Amino acid sequence: MALFLPVAIDVMGGDNAPGQIIDGARQAFASGIPVVLVGRPEEIANFDTGGLPVIGASEVIAMDDDPGKAVRTMKDSSLVRAAEAVRDGKASAFLSAGNTGATMASALLRMGRIKGVQRPAIATPIPVPGHLPTVLLDAGANAECTPEMLLQFAQMGTAYARARFGIERPRVGLLSIGEEDGKGNQLAKDANEAFRRGDAGPGVNFVGNVEGRDIMTPNIDVVVTDGFTGNVVLKTLEGGMKFFAGKVFEALTSSPEAKEAAKVLLPALMPLAEALDPSTYGGALLLGTDGVCIISHGSSNATAILNAAKVARDMVEADLVGAIRAAVSEGS
Amino acid sequence: MALFLPVAIDVMGGDNAPGQIIDGARQAFASGIPVVLVGRPEEIANFDTGGLPVIGASEVIAMDDDPGKAVRTMKDSSLVRAAEAVRDGKASAFLSAGNTGATMASALLRMGRIKGVQRPAIATPIPVPGHLPTVLLDAGANAECTPEMLLQFAQMGTAYARARFGIERPRVGLLSIGEEDGKGNQLAKDANEAFRRGDAGPGVNFVGNVEGRDIMTPNIDVVVTDGFTGNVVLKTLEGGMKFFAGKVFEALTSSPEAKEAAKVLLPALMPLAEALDPSTYGGALLLGTDGVCIISHGSSNATAILNAAKVARDMVEADLVGAIRAAVSEGS
After folding, report:
1. How far is the C-alpha of B163 from the C-alpha of B296, rounded, in Å?
2. What is the DSSP string of A15-70?
3. Theoretical Cys-Cys bridge with B194: which of A200, B105, B131, B199, CB 3.0 to 4.6 Å?
4. Is B212–A188 a contact, with Cβ atoms under 8 angstroms apart?
5. A271 vs B82 pLDDT, higher one
6. Whole-angstrom Cα distance, residue B294 to residue A214?
7. Hey, of A237, A259, A277, which one would you mutate to test binding to chain B, going by the most B CBs within 10 A of its CB?
């Protein structure tokens, strides 16, 4: 572990920055993961960092800043400095709960793309309580996609599902509006044809079209789609689950009798709540950049940051970047 | 009520046809809605129809038949005959739980489009327990859309939300991947610009972009999107809710103690289960055809058919077709 480079953590990004982010970083360090904090030294000094190393950055990219412009003009921002730390061999990976677009742009501009990758994609694990999650990509990096991009998403998603969840030969589905090959919009139809021709290469185990209802089931491992549809799916599920969970909670606390009954059910309901908690998986991975970049949820708390740091460490140790490089060059 | 033309019910379509469909039709009639059954007389004769009138049709379009081809070639199918009954003034509306594509094609080819409507759209109420549902359209009729089509969906969705749920000035949102106007794929960006220019006309209360997480909230009344994205959203929610509900049910029955506790919670949980039950809203409406057409879920039971018949009756009485005609011509 002594040779393992630290994970660079942008402590300025996210709804709970910097307090919860620093807390999460400390917890990660305590669990054996070397970390380096990136942010404004004078703000970090207000918190007990437990002596963690700091890379200073004087600027902060806000959640609603224009990503491209912010990354180009705020060269001393915590996000840009975190990505540079990876590029310069001072960190093994970086993570941020800040502006998603700026996180992607920092990763792309500072770490660069893996050779052969057309466009990096965001891969998000969708929880399937009681089972391994389903990897959804692209979850929002590319609003417009070509069939060729979807083929690469399948290659990268396969490498990721194997490295992260140990699925030897992940089943890859193409998101569409019918299981039959001919169903969908033009992109889905063209992509389906390309997959059926075997254009994704022998490394991709394409099982055909899948529908929205298949995502939260154990029947599929990787679901590929364009970043517009993927992002809509992700947020629809997030919203739906939150609303449903809120209603169940309302029912469980609707009367003194209900509250008593709920206590009995808590041990059975807790694993479900945990599995659906966004902090469980620590965040999404940006696949296709020449370095590990984790995009944590804006609402990340210390636990989410701890989990994200673990994922970063695991993905560096599993050489995810090398696996994606091999998958993309083999498939082309 | 004597002057009200019957609702034509395709008793051959759906997973539970014809038994549950006929049951539902009987219940509808018992509740004061005149109905006419459409299907194979020899099969209908095996069930107790309570003497309901029958329009004979010798063919049945299967769930997996190619919609266009089936409707063109199977002229004596129950779906085509049901749509013809509306065209010929023998029925006021028709409904089917069968092949969705063929239902749309029958409606379009036999009843025709309302003048000025580019493409009919499927409008599906998304349950928001404790509140009025959110109307989502297009939920799957048009995999490829233009900005102009989305403007019309907004006009038609507005007329529908008013006629069906009594919302005087429904808030219309454009589904995208960010609330800011510039966010989204090309279609969403172009549509947003057209909405902002006021191209949808004064009748549409456009409130801006909405995200997936907004759909199941009381914050929006009508959400417009292309039929690919809409169908993915619908099935994603359906799958997610089903999976979540199944897991909650597992927890409630995980032990004898849990089962006892669950009994106490049942009164509080039942309204939620009912609100999320697809049969509650009876199905989706095809908007833009010159007659009321209800697309019920393939899994419809008798209750779903009863509710669908009620919706059909209500939409005829509210002159939904006239309201859409006015909305589309006013907006253009």
Report:
1. 19
2. TTTTHHHHHHHHHHHHTT--EEEEE-HHHHTTS--TT--EEE--B---TTS-HHHH
3. B199
4. no
5. B82
6. 25
7. A237
